[in-house]
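W.,

You were right to be curious about this one. When I first looked at the sequence I had no strong expectations either way, so I just let the prediction run and decided to look at it fresh. Below is the sequence, 90 residues in total, followed by the output.
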Amino acid sequence: MTTISLPASIDRRAVPGLAAEISDALSKGATLTLDGSAVQQAGQIGLQLLLSASKTAAQREARLDLANASDALRTAARTSGVAHILNLEA
């Protein structure tokens, strides 16, 4: 199992490196936890990254968990209408 801590801002500067790190961690059958506790701002590109990671995990028969989502991350996901896809409804 691998855990990646998401940065305070998931924006266009953070996404390329984060995308590579997530892709590398999502090998077939792997379990990856993304810790969202430090996220203070999540832009649309950051949410797209999380949605893509979810889809990639499913395609690779891996498990992706988004844990400790901050209020800012939950709010961004709700506002964008993707909270249910990322399991951030609560």
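Here's what jumped out at me. The beta strands are 2-5, 9-10, 31-35, 41-42, 63-67. And, maybe more interesting for your project: Residues 47 and 77 are 7 Å apart (CA to CA).

Coffee later to discuss?

I.
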